[in-house]
Fold each of these.
Amino acid sequence: MVKVGIIGGTGYTGVELIRLLYMHPQAEIVAITSRTEAGRSLAEYFPNFAGLSDLEFTEPASTPFQFCDLIFFATPNGTAMKVVPELLSAGKKIIDLAADFRLNDAAVWQQWYGEEHACADLLNEAVYGLPEINRAKIKDAKLVANPGCYPTSVILGFLPLIEQGLVDPANLIADAKSGVSGAGRGAKIGSLHAEVSENFKAYGVDGHRHLPEIKQVLNAVGDNNVQLTFIPHLLPMNRGIHATLYANISSQDSTDLTQLYRDCFRKEPFVTVLDAGVHPETRAVRGTNRCILSVNRVSDRQIVVLSVIDNLVKGAAGQAVQNMNIMYDLPETTGLETVGLLP
Amino acid sequence: MVKVGIIGGTGYTGVELIRLLYMHPQAEIVAITSRTEAGRSLAEYFPNFAGLSDLEFTEPASTPFQFCDLIFFATPNGTAMKVVPELLSAGKKIIDLAADFRLNDAAVWQQWYGEEHACADLLNEAVYGLPEINRAKIKDAKLVANPGCYPTSVILGFLPLIEQGLVDPANLIADAKSGVSGAGRGAKIGSLHAEVSENFKAYGVDGHRHLPEIKQVLNAVGDNNVQLTFIPHLLPMNRGIHATLYANISSQDSTDLTQLYRDCFRKEPFVTVLDAGVHPETRAVRGTNRCILSVNRVSDRQIVVLSVIDNLVKGAAGQAVQNMNIMYDLPETTGLETVGLLP
Amino acid sequence: MVKVGIIGGTGYTGVELIRLLYMHPQAEIVAITSRTEAGRSLAEYFPNFAGLSDLEFTEPASTPFQFCDLIFFATPNGTAMKVVPELLSAGKKIIDLAADFRLNDAAVWQQWYGEEHACADLLNEAVYGLPEINRAKIKDAKLVANPGCYPTSVILGFLPLIEQGLVDPANLIADAKSGVSGAGRGAKIGSLHAEVSENFKAYGVDGHRHLPEIKQVLNAVGDNNVQLTFIPHLLPMNRGIHATLYANISSQDSTDLTQLYRDCFRKEPFVTVLDAGVHPETRAVRGTNRCILSVNRVSDRQIVVLSVIDNLVKGAAGQAVQNMNIMYDLPETTGLETVGLLP
Amino acid sequence: MVKVGIIGGTGYTGVELIRLLYMHPQAEIVAITSRTEAGRSLAEYFPNFAGLSDLEFTEPASTPFQFCDLIFFATPNGTAMKVVPELLSAGKKIIDLAADFRLNDAAVWQQWYGEEHACADLLNEAVYGLPEINRAKIKDAKLVANPGCYPTSVILGFLPLIEQGLVDPANLIADAKSGVSGAGRGAKIGSLHAEVSENFKAYGVDGHRHLPEIKQVLNAVGDNNVQLTFIPHLLPMNRGIHATLYANISSQDSTDLTQLYRDCFRKEPFVTVLDAGVHPETRAVRGTNRCILSVNRVSDRQIVVLSVIDNLVKGAAGQAVQNMNIMYDLPETTGLETVGLLP
């Protein structure tokens, strides 16, 4: 039984993490902290726990982290980096669901996140927690940087093509669409129902923080020559990311791309490759840790990959649990063997 | 391990039942029939099963029911009654998720469902599968009539008041609101996204089939003197029923109603009673077999009960699994211990 | 040409009022104030005006109200009452879309709105701006209290029954459902898309500010003996209110209720009465100043009235324009002759 | 006053056309035909007309087309072509909102629409009704092929770049997203609320009928060398198209693209170009005939154009009315001067 603490459990990533760990047969939630909601019961704050749980939010300062093996951070960016060194020193393992440890380069981090990194020396120690790439490293990691939601969907979608060097890395496009839970539970006008529903728009056309993260990973997989255009869009729904990925292949190439993808992900418990011409749907993965893909050659030169995940699960809390399972030698699918909720 | 067959698995009730049974540790799905989709794979038809299941829909006639202990009917009304007698004779147990065996009186059935009942003699043998009322009978039943979705939410909401005779039974009102999955997966204009979303309306103000079902059960609980006004409404969402129930109490009565409800449902694993003044939300029970209630005295005379369920789970497939668990002496919550998906 | 100023134009009521006045052939918007957005262009703030309008938000203090005939307040409750006396003294006419002048009794106002009323002496001078009741008074009014959204739908729905004394006034129920734009454009967690969509709940079961407003008006129409249970609910959609109204009639009464309603509203340009058994839909009135009703006798004693409006139009900005038209002797439908946007 | 007939008025394009023409000051609807709904009143069929209109659907055969100047077809593809020759002979003008006359080449038409064209000789007489390209021809046209919804948004978005030859025409990508009303009002499972809401997916990755239409128009504008990848997606909402367009520009080019677009559309009453970096939203154009664009240079080589329309208005019925206005020498914006409904 892994004893876990959750720092910052009042957002959507937090409540999903609590939900998954609550149902996990090998994990026990020892503490959930929240500065603003300390003293309040989880069941009152999140009504899906009404009648189920006696947990209460606690002040970070008075939280008995000494009883925890593993600490999850479900905090805003810039919070974990101020506390992690101390917790590591105390022998705790850490999974950070925010962006503090995702980039290797402190200068790049500062450029995109707007403040100096508080423990730049840990950036190279942290393991980027995408099991499909880094499973072996995650196993021994003390500090896991859980990937961003968009990066998870985009990297898994491009991975076989970049690994095999089949496409022009200088002309990649990721047209990505996310449900609004990806924007968090902060009280922002832009996330109101009356702003989001019956509406659709792009955002971040001038640049988005997930771009350097995706490029860093794809560059490491390939030959450090990735040029990516990444345009995120806001979907009028709660959960789900759909990435539509465009790449140019040599028109002489005749690889069976679906077979290539199936070979690449053969041993992956959470990645499914559909036949070409079949369209993955976000609802198929709702509430699950799965990624569903199809890869389509739509003309001589043009490949289109369709990739869906649940941004709160494979894109956040579920992937964090998958990482926990790996770190503690549990079967990787423990607590994650659910079928998507449809409709 | 209970071996189950599902007749009619292509609707929303069907896919939810398959989902729950697929994840159930003590059940095995042997066969799923569909006349229209025979030969097609479940994973292709319902994308949430892509990569998970090899099941195929089969023709009813060529389906090996001999290997099944229990048959679920997730068919339209009027289908099960034509086949059930034969299956009962063959020693199978039956849970019908449609309305064929919910009413005791064949004449009333015919009045509301528009055709003669095909096996009226079984109406009194069938057990109405609401465990909170009929647990003991369900245990020994061969044929369970799984309750309707609206009836489940309305009956549980009124139950303690009627049992205790605290309110005027001649002036009950149920203003009920349901997500559109309750209308089924038939291709009807009225269920189109562009008809349902950003819209709200009542329907069935002239009478709805669930009215006689509710009255029959409440009359049996009380003194056969229930007069109920039942107005259903269509919500612009997929899952969830919210019943707002109105009853008049003697103004001298000073019962602690919340305590009464908690006493009544003390042993029920799927019913939670909130404090008065707290508002149950449908999302709190999404994907779960739970009913959450609050009971509120809003004036000297007027009681307002708020009751929420997931129409596809406690209102259909989940309750059917709960009934299966009871019939097969399994812990009643087996396979149903999930936390609501929020958001 | 009526020259109008709008105080507080950054909410949903504000933008709808601007939209309607922008398209109104006899009104000219001279100024729109906003403390927080002063200096910002309307077209940048509300993208539906991009390319259409050069208006800018201005500071209230530097706004040339001297060029305005009529001032609309689309401000939060408690704002108008602090400014209105001065503007009235300056000879301006006022329509307040907030609640400051809706209640006659300053003590009741204070009880529900939590502060002392700043100009209680004006409460009896203000005219409640529901044209179907107060058209003659509105014509000569200097200060119009534009009705609340729920009150508009509920009062119009009960009006003929109360006027004619046909129902028991001591046992009225209004089960009302509103789209989330009724909660305003404030950045509140409870109004987030991920909280509202795929969810439904009641609120205010302990009491809602619109209750005293409805009772005051119905008491004035009837015999001051109204007892009303009013339960509001939040719909997962943006626009529209549906009130389901329950009343008890003497079972001997045989009035043709639909005819009664049609007679009552015969001259009303914005009220339509459907046949009994037909269900009004909120989308039928989306973007319009209309109220659509049906009245149904569902049993010997029980009447159910169904009433729909667009909460931002007939429930707010449209009714304000209707009041303006009356005050300035314009045809009452000027600028309001639109057909509902469907789908 | 233009006297118009509408053939096939029971779909979403039909009801929007009726709505716009009903409010149009210079048009009068003489007849609306429907084989299936003949004899039924418009007000009963489409509740937004309740209390407003006495029109009834009529049988095509018994419809007095002799009193019409102009006939709109809002029928499924393949219907108009069987009737248009006769109506043209009778001196009627025609605007077809379906696809029958959009392609010049009968063989290509047959390939994409699956049947032989019934009047291929008219294909070259028909004018493609995109006023921003063909205004002069539309003025004198007898037969206008109203453009498809996707083509309108994509063509307007690429137009200045192709006209000026600024981008590589062999590597264009249109990642387009449409609300579900674009799929029509047919009773299809794929358009059900419970299939569409809280879901997102691509479709037609193997090819979509709007691809040859877009290519034909862009080829005519440019040098007949357009290679376009067009991937449509289904949005969980009713109205609106957002096209995200990708093109490669020579990295030496330093044209001010926003200025180029503004110059190109300077005289267009329905096209607005936002500043680079600003994101058009579909709700800004809801219910309007407008197209809002921004053009963004996101890297040395990559241009991203964002383009939004309301698929039922500028993408269908509104553009048809715009074409009517042009054909009858009315001010082009007559009946179309509305502000988007927000929220």
Note: Chain A is about 25% helix and 20% strand.
Amino acid sequence: MPKAVAGPEIERLIQLLAKLPGLGPRSARRAALHLIKKREQLMTPLTEALGTARDRITVCGICGNIDSQNPCTVCTDPKRDSSVIVVVADVADLWALERANAVNARYHVLGGTLSPLDGIGPQDLSIDALVSRAHEPAVKEVILALNATVDGQTTAHYITDLLHNANVTVTRLAHGVPVGGELDYLDEGTLSAAIRQRTPI
Amino acid sequence: MPKAVAGPEIERLIQLLAKLPGLGPRSARRAALHLIKKREQLMTPLTEALGTARDRITVCGICGNIDSQNPCTVCTDPKRDSSVIVVVADVADLWALERANAVNARYHVLGGTLSPLDGIGPQDLSIDALVSRAHEPAVKEVILALNATVDGQTTAHYITDLLHNANVTVTRLAHGVPVGGELDYLDEGTLSAAIRQRTPI
Ligand SMILES: [Zn+2]
Ligand SMILES: [Zn+2]
């Protein structure tokens, strides 16, 4: 812990900012200073936006998306193809696919991928709920939009086996996804192509 | 503006986070998601810390430091050598010198450097107040801890001229500071050495 120069309030703010992904201790200090200098233009609005988000953001009971309404905006959108469920590991992946305008369907957020080394098993993910949704008569296709990593592909195979008795086509993203790559870092064109060229498993 | 997927509250939060130095639009989304997932451990404390900082942080009327008290912690510390004033362009530089434990004196924050190209003249900086402080009988030395850039050195020469009639020794940081470098990015050893080897102008 460096020497405190500016009182405990600022040190506390710096410590908390440093916990954000992408900000280390030094950039957290710069961010804190920037906030203090832009008190009216940035610090006050950010404080209010955080408070509003904290009070209103919830997890969608259907798909696991994060939104201020439950069911979420995606699940209640009547213009989406409700016969297709896109399975993602994380909300960040859902956001990435939406930014790419890659698909206009429903989602299902697993909350991670199977990872024996990290002790993450099927009971830690939202897999039962997915199987249940896949058995609804309206659902015709489940797209497994998972990372092209060992854990992602292990999870894809596990889910494919579970959906064997459901009346759905199970597809995965095309091999446009770089091996070892993570969805959230891909450009939008690659994501769109990977959705278009999805192949049956 | 990418397609909104998660309601206006989250989009607003992402927009504001993206204005922090060090966070772009993509890392702001990751930061927002991290905050939402860590609602109790991080989002609530950060909201409160921002609110507290916003309400309590002020600018020191003597030196220009940012603190929750005025005069600031540095100016009211009886253990500091009040015969030495370290002149810095920005509060970030003050913090950097303090982190390095480079000097145990008072500071004076100019609020920038002279920059004819950017239209920043003496009237835009806290220079009159510095000259006034330098004429106090207790003050014996003014250390110009300014960036080794053209603007920083122009400012140093301008201040040196103004202090000609004051009964103080004007020094600058040793040339340990890399040419073109900015104080806030230097390691602590370099900053300490630069303070130790300061030379008369
Ligand atoms: Zn939903
Ligand atoms: Zn002060």
Note: The domain at 7-38 of chain B is CATH 1.10.8.420 (Helicase, Ruva Protein; domain 3).
Amino acid sequence: MKQETATKSFGGTQGVYSHSSKACDCDMRFAVFMPPADTHGPGPYPALYWLSGLTCTEDNFITKAGAQRVAAELGLVIVAPDTSPRGERVPDDPDGAYDFGLGAGFYLDATEEPWSKHYKMYSYLTGELPALIEKEFPVDGNRCGIFGHSMGGHGALTIHLKNPDKFKTCSAFSPIVAPGEVPWGRKAFSNYLGTDETKWVAYDATALVAKNPGPADILIDQGTADQFLEEQLQPARFAAACQASGQSLTLRMQDGYDHSYYFIASFMEDHLRWHHER
Amino acid sequence: MKQETATKSFGGTQGVYSHSSKACDCDMRFAVFMPPADTHGPGPYPALYWLSGLTCTEDNFITKAGAQRVAAELGLVIVAPDTSPRGERVPDDPDGAYDFGLGAGFYLDATEEPWSKHYKMYSYLTGELPALIEKEFPVDGNRCGIFGHSMGGHGALTIHLKNPDKFKTCSAFSPIVAPGEVPWGRKAFSNYLGTDETKWVAYDATALVAKNPGPADILIDQGTADQFLEEQLQPARFAAACQASGQSLTLRMQDGYDHSYYFIASFMEDHLRWHHER
């Protein structure tokens, strides 16, 4: 692991790191915020994993979400990985579209060529990355949660529902909740996983929660002025599945907010305190 | 004036606007954060003008500084203009350097060709822009302050010292305080104002405060790990001039912080409350 940058922020340290990932077979970057040791001691600390949305890297969250202030107060580590494998050898959308390929890994393990060699974000996030984090940083692997935005909300929901003992708490901003039913997800899944839709349910939060509700109360914030709400997000699908299966869900429709980091920043403090209390 | 974007943020609205500027003889963009009317009423509100540093546009502050949360709480409008004139007709540094020309207007009125046609940021900020803001938004022109970062800290200090009745409060993050004595300022001033250095003192905070200290207590935060501290910033020059002239100054050296928006965000709340209390 190599430290790329380390910047003081709210008394703590916002770092960016790179390493050679076995799961993704390429160099990967991720960001880690460490709270101030002089107020919180040497750790180990609880940690939250943040999964970003389409087109993002590890940089968007750390510059725009305004999470460091409250994380420093609460003594939380926040890990923000990249959204896909990267590098010259990693194939991208043949048309360079924003919603598939680089910046759009969808937090799954691809099974189809040519994507399956590098697009292993699910294995990376549930195995290799937490192991590296717990080895290199004073993080308590038994007190981890996960949250994210849009495509990263989909990632957070599915990874929590499949690994509730590892990622014990879960929240999301404007998540994709039923990827098999919306254009972003159908494009990505048909390429990464193939056209047999029975294989898609392993990465579909609405399908997963219908069978295996998790133990945590899930928090979702969704802006009513979100330009992707009706076509791509449709949180009511997830809410209905939660109600049917007994999954505890707090879905808050936030009047007038859109899909941007202005929305995320406005409710970031709520989410950090939500995870911390649990 | 044209509204380019309007995004809900912490209950208020973060807008970006454009207009045809007479002072700069080009189209100019600026950002305005309006606090939530449902908690603060219809106004008029006090306003703070934020001046950004080299390479920035109106976008850096509104995405990275995390100011909206506290501005929404306090009922403050924040106006963040661009850092230079823009457009195809506006000349740039012949080598495309980051520290002169586009993104580097230095908040002065250029007198030398070819810069003098468009580079009139001082007139723009002290005349045209506040007049437009007070016409188009519920802003109280008698309750305005100014603050900024680096080159924008230089702008805030000089504009406050020359216009203390208009911009009544002033603070800065890692400002250029003696442009005539450091490489950034000497390059810009010799091009914009010519080689007669007696003309430079009109835009030199350390020279200005030696003659005309202002009524307000000025707040400056400076990171000790700032890579530009020794060569370009040198706040001790300004502190010495303030002490000699009786200018009230609160200079805080912040241990371990650098020149970035991570530093700015860490102390943004302090600055907003500082202005609001005054």
Note: Chain A has a mean pLDDT of 96.
